[in-house]
Design goal:
19 strands, 33% helix, alpha+beta, binds magnesium ion, binds guanosine-5'-diphosphate, 370 residues
């Protein structure tokens, strides 16, 4: 923040960069548009042009939308976002595939499915459910650690022939800590050695009382392998979603969370984001964590180009200058100069964090005491 390029300053003052260069020349300075000038010179220029100076603190540079609450009358229903968790080999991937496969068979999915980290399934009544296709606790806890709570409902998968295992208990604890409602999918009921009742009893020891035992946690017996009772699971999700009355304002600048991001050889940085409120549009100028850019194209979970994505819709976003991290927030800003400013600021914060965690030299120790 100690220096700014002439071009950037002109942009913020809404003046022509050439006029600034001219004014600087009169002040005895030969600078080009892309050159940086110090804060004092910048202030001199600003007053010279008759603008008021507002020194911004660091917290003014970054974006904080947490206080920006949508009025009740702007809210519309949105689909629930579901994460499937459970012990390894209990059938998380099989269940996700089975649900998605069932949707493909009803024809609405158009056959080709693509892995983008999240997908939507349409119900018979046209309502939708969004599944995060990054199962496991890692994605869930990493996102939560970064302040992103994108999951509305957790489906806990427990294999009926294996019962509660360490990762099942971990998932229960994470879900409780996040305050997210849970549905228990008792899987592999096709197996002769399946003991669903034993699963329900084991859950009691962790204060999970399923409906079958007189509690209020929905439990559904399924077989991902035989595709048994997938409808029952989807119904349970819909019931839970109705209780939650999930809503968001679709008619505003979008806010979204990164679910997955990668560097694609041909397409550059690609981020799968889940829109949380507003509608993301092609052409929007965005900041995502310490990355910035302009939405060049968006692809849905079938690899189809879309122009817009509303609340709870997962899309792949192309056009970022760098690869963001899972859990990063996407915000739409007014112009590219502002996007770069925020991204640069955040990169600086990240760099500072990195250097302060490095061992201190004598020099910096004295410097910090002064
Ligand atoms: P994940 O590690 O939780 O993602 O589990 P997977 O989906 O990879 O499944 C682990 C194994 O269990 C695979 O061999 C699956 O074929 C098998 N499996 C998953 N669901 C069922 C089921 O409903 N019945 C039976 N018999 N096997 C299943
Ligand atoms: Mg798996």
């Amino acid at each position: 923040p100690e220096s700014i390029t002439v071009g950037e300053l002109a942009n913020r003052m809404a003046e022509k960069a050439a006029d600034l260069v001219k004014a600087l020349f009169k002040m005895g300075m030969m600078v080009t548009v892309n050159q940086a000038i110090d804060q004092d010179t910048a202030e001199l220029l600003v007053t010279e042009f008759g603008h008021n100076i507002k020194r911004v603190s660091d917290s003014d540079i970054d974006i904080d939308t947490s206080t920006d609450v949508d009025a009740d009358e702007t809210l519309k229903s949105r689909p629930p976002v579901v994460t499937i968790m459970g012990h390894v080999d209990h059938g998380k991937t099989s269940l996700l595939d089975a649900i998605r496969g069932a949707a493909v068979q009803t024809g609405e999915a158009g056959g080709i499915t693509q892995h983008i980290g999240a997908y939507q399934v349409a119900m018979k009544d046209k309502s939708k459910i969004t599944f995060l296709d990054t199962p496991g606790h890692e994605a869930f806890t990493e996102m939560r650690a970064r302040g992103a709570n994108v999951t509305d409902i957790v489906v806990l998968v427990v294999a009926a022939d294996d019962g509660l295992k360490p990762q099942t208990i971990e998932a229960i604890n994470h879900t409780k800590a996040a305050g997210v409602p849970m549905i228990v999918a008792i899987n592999k009921i096709d197996k002769p050695e399946a003991k669903p009742q034993k699963v329900r009893e084991e859950l009691l020891q962790h204060e999970i009382i399923v409906e079958d035992m007189g509690g209020d946690v929905q439990d559904v017996e399924v077989s991902a392998l035989k595709k048994t009772n997938l409808d029952g699971l989807l119904d349970a999700i819909n019931i839970q979603a109705e209780i939650l009355e999930l809503k968001a304002n679709p008619d505003r600048a979008a806010e979204a969370t990164v679910v997955e991001a990668k560097l694609d050889k041909g397409r550059g940085p690609v981020a799968t984001v889940l829109v949380q409120r507003g509608t993301l549009k092609v052409g929007d100028v965005i900041v995502v964590g310490a990355a910035s850019g302009k939405v060049r194209a968006m692809l849905d979970d079938h690899g189809k180009q879309v122009k817009e994505a509303g609340p709870s819709v997962p899309v792949e976003v192309l056009g970022l200058g760098a690869v963001p991290s899972a859990g990063d927030q996407l915000t739409v800003v007014e112009n590219e100069a502002r996007a770069r400013e925020v991204a640069t600021y955040r990169q600086g914060v990240l760099d500072k964090k990195r250097t302060t965690t490095a061992p201190m030299s004598l020099e910096t120790m004295f410097a910090s005491k002064a």
